[in-house]
Amino acid sequence: MSTVIVTTSEELKNIVNMAVLEALAKHSNTINQKEDKVLTVKEAAKSLNCCTKTVLNLISVGKLPAINKNRGSGRRAAYRVMDSDVKAFLKRQRA
Predict the structure, then answer these.
(1) What are φ and ψ of residue 15, in 5° steps?
(2) Which end of the chain has a smaller Cβ tally under 10 Å, C or N?
């Protein structure tokens, strides 16, 4: 683990966003990361045509991969889901 010194809130935001994207890339089934969108729970719910509680339940039981952007910060969970994972979930449900 390396030490990072952050001087501005904008720099911290960029570091957190990069870490979230890296973590999502590890959990994603996508081949072309540049074309894949990172979705909020609300956006994923809209794509799945369901409510946000359903998406959170799918995440909690492991049916929909996600990363908690606020993990370890003491703040409430802020999950992010890859668009390709939402599409893969829909494909599995239709099969």
Answers:
(1) -65, -45
(2) N
Mean pLDDT of 80-84: 94
Residues 72, 16: contact at Cβ < 8 Å? no
CATH of the domain at 47: 1.10.10
Please tell me the distance from the alpha carbon of residue 2 to that of residue 78, in angstroms, as a whole number. 25
Tell me the mean pLDDT in the region 43-68: 96
Asked if residue 41 lies in contact with residue 54, where contact means CB atoms within 8 angstroms, the answer is no
Look at the chain and report how many structural domains it folds into.
1
Amino acid residing at 49: N
Res. 22 pLDDT band, cuts 50 70 90: confident
Residue 4 within any structural domain of the chain: no
User: 39: helix, coil or strand?
Assistant: strand
- Sequence-separated (6 or more) residues with CB below 8 Å from residue 15: 4, 6
